[in-house]
Amino acid sequence: MFEKILIANRGEIACRVMETARALGVKTVAVYSDADRDAKHVASADEAYLIGNGPAPADSYLLGAEIISIAKASGAQAIHPGYGFLSENPEFVDAVGAAGLTFIGPSASAIRAMGLKDAAKVLMEEAGVPVVPGYHGDNQDPDHLQKAADTITYPVLIKAVAGGGGKGMRLVERPEDFAQALKSAQGEATTAFGNPDVLIEKYIQQPRHIEVQVFGDGKQAVHLFERDCSLQRRHQKVIEEAPAPGMTEDMRAAMGQAAVQAAEAIGYKGAGTVEFIVDGANGLRPDGFWFMEMNTRLQVEHPVTELITGVDLVEWQLRVASGESLPGRQQDLTINGHAFEARLYAEDVPKGFLPATGTLTHLEFPASCRADSGVRAGDAISPWYDPMIAKVIVHGPSRAAALQKLSSALEQTQVAGTVTNLAFLGALAGHKGFACGEVDTGLIARDLEDLAAPPIVQVAQKTAAAMGALGLVQTTPETGFTLWEPLHRSVQLSHQEEVFVADVQVDGPDRQIWTIDDVEVIANRRGGAWMLDGMPMPQVAQSGPEITVFDRYGFSFTVIDPLDRDASAAGDSNVIEAPMPGLVKAVFATAGQSVKEGDRLAILEAMKMEHALLAARDGVVAEVLATDGDQVEAGAALVRLEEAAV
Ligand code: ADP
Ligand code: ADP
Ligand code: MG
Predict the structure, then answer these.
(1) 208-221 per-position pLDDT tens digit
(2) What integer pLDDT is reported at residue 614 of this predicted model?
(3) Residue 492 and residue 398 share a domain
(4) What is the pLDDT of residues 106-139, one digit of tens each?
(5) Which of 52, 126, 262, 373 has a CA positioned 20 to 30 A from the CA of residue 69?
(6) Do 396 and 268 share a domain, yes or no?
(7) According to DSSP H, which parts of 142-295 are helical?
(8) Structure pTM?
(9) What is the mean pLDDT of each run of 10 residues along the chain (646 residues)?
């Protein structure tokens, strides 16, 4: 086993790898960017070194040569790449080897073989693995591609051969839409991957995404069963589970065998995932799955496999990379129970899942779940990297029991300081079709309106917020109010767009009568715990003027300072601002142009996603303040509308 390894990553995966390393007695070296000086992964490592000259990945976590020289200087023998960043970069793997270090992962040639989706498909066809019918040849002439699509018959999917993270993909339903979709897929592929090439695939109508975890030692491979990742939004995974609902022994055996065949065909070493698309229209059948791509790294959702197999995949990675043979044989691997993982992100769901930033003033997970997280209370979600806060992972004896556990773990998760997708995840965990195992990749889009609707704030939550705001939760007889004369106080709070006033009559240390929106709520303290109209009062956290009530996934309130008049004034609807730091991808507005509310005026690329910036009202563009390619700060004015006529 290694004595010391360097982890060339950040966030939850860096922390996850360090945990296993520590358990095995392996020392860890962290690297960090300027933005991550105080990050959890830095504090968790035995040693940590600053890299690069700025927070952007290209100036920090992607600097392979610098990372390798830190590994050498610190005496690390191997480098774990985590996922993302350099994990699937064959040049980096070669450079690690050339420096006399071990790359904890597959060979450069295995990564190259799977790096481009088209070449991987050809290879898999040759290895006898079923692939989605389609065209994955070299001819990129638009007419040729259109003919290929016509032959495959619609609907078809255009995919960037270099694609990843759901980018460069377009669904085409009719031949007349093909040319336009091809252009836009190629455009996105060029900006995202520097490679415009695409392949054409038959679009599976009721698709399920089922992937198989494989593990190889360079010669032989085993599989650790499947994960179902069909709950997706825009081709990005949201909730994953293992095993797949409705899976039959026949199909599991066929998929496992195909995945092992794929891994062995490229001499795969380490942890990898073979992703298949499955036609869910007529139930699961041993001949109803096709190879999509292979991810040559540890996957984000690996914990669900760990929980049903009892295998620590990072431990296996370290063992095999250090020269040991495969730690388990196929016949020793079994499935125990069911596991779910939900990805908790800092994002504003009602605003179209807009990624958010902020400082986590409070962060707590229930003991009933495994929470893999790269942040702690007090840490910031910066605009530079993936806005994932944590993965909430649960295990139960059956799917129903595990889903029940997921629901309650999400209900008990407490986050303050940023908006999150917690309520959305909770709604998904409670979705009736999902509970029945009716999963396909279209589920979220079909029911988006219900799933994304924010929980409506109730008077009890407003009361709890007001009690927090006035410091009336911890009252004691010594707090200073007179016991003889009832004390009246009031506070103004806002929740989203709504501003309300809460009045209280304090009747003693254990009784308060609140009036909010003309509704009366009695707060009574019994045995030290407050009850609101007879129901337990939810927990409250406060940070400056921000108050979070931990009930139904959390409601945030802001205390309005009566002396600060601007606080309640509406925002300036004349100016379209960048909601976060990012790159201006396109500006559609021109001075003098008339626009309607909701018109797309610019596109900002930030946190790996494109955000359309819309006109907040009808009007005329007065001034365009940004151009394509500008790097802008949060709050930068991009477009200004003329003053609205009154
Ligand atoms: P998985 O298949 O393991 O669930 P993804 O394929 O969504 O995960 O992403 C795997 C890794 O690649 C993650 O580290 C993620 O942050 C990173 N990633 C995903 N999409 C992009 C993108 N568009 N640009 C850069 N990195 C990405
Ligand atoms: P990426 O590299 O971006 O992860 P994939 O090829 O793995 O791209 O596809 C991402 C997702 O797109 C899949 O999980 C699935 O939901 C959907 N998808 C891909 N191929 C097809 C197909 N042929 N038919 C229907 N859906 C598909
Ligand atoms: Mg994929």
Answers:
(1) 999 999 999 999 99
(2) 85
(3) no
(4) 999 999 999 999 999 999 999 889 999 999 999 9
(5) 373
(6) yes
(7) 142-152, 178-193, 249-265
(8) 0.86
(9) 98 98 98 97 98 94 98 98 96 98 98 93 92 94 96 96 89 96 94 93 94 97 98 94 97 97 96 96 89 96 98 98 96 98 96 91 97 97 93 98 98 97 98 95 96 94 96 69 66 92 91 95 94 96 94 94 51 78 87 89 78 86 91 86 78
Q: Of all atoms in ligand 2, which is nearest to the CA of residue 168?
A: 3
Ligand 2 site, CB within 6 A: 132, 157, 159, 163-166, 201-204, 207, 209, 232, 235, 275, 277, 292-293, 441
Which of 452, 472, 504 terminates a domain? The answer is 452
Residues 475 and 397 occupy one common structural domain: no
List the residue whose alpha carbon is closest to atom 15 of ligand 1: 84
- Structural domain including 165 reads 133-202
Q: Please name which of 563, 419, 571, 570 lies closest in space to residue 492, comparing C-alpha atoms.
A: 563
Q: Which residues contact 2 (CB under 8 A, 6 or more apart)?
A: 26, 76, 77, 78, 102, 318, 321, 322
Q: Give the chain's domain count.
A: 5
CA distance 113 to 129: 15
To the query of whether residue 208 is one of the catalytic residues in this protein, the response is no
- How far is C-alpha 137 from the geometric centre of its chain's CA atoms? 33
Q: What is the residue type of 391?
A: K
The DSSP result for 580-594, as a single string, is SSEEEEEE---TT-E
pLDDT at 535: 96
Confirm whether 113 is domain-assigned. no
**Residue 115 lies inside a defined structural domain of this protein:** no
Which atom of ligand 2 is least distant from the CA of 203? Answer: 24
- State the distance from the centre of ligand 2 to the C-alpha of 10, rounded, in angstroms: 26
Assign residue 485 the CATH number of its domain.
Answer: 3.30.700.30
Q: Is residue 79 part of a domain?
A: yes
Residues 437 and 420 occupy one common structural domain:
yes
Asked if residue 520 and residue 628 are part of one domain, the reply reads no
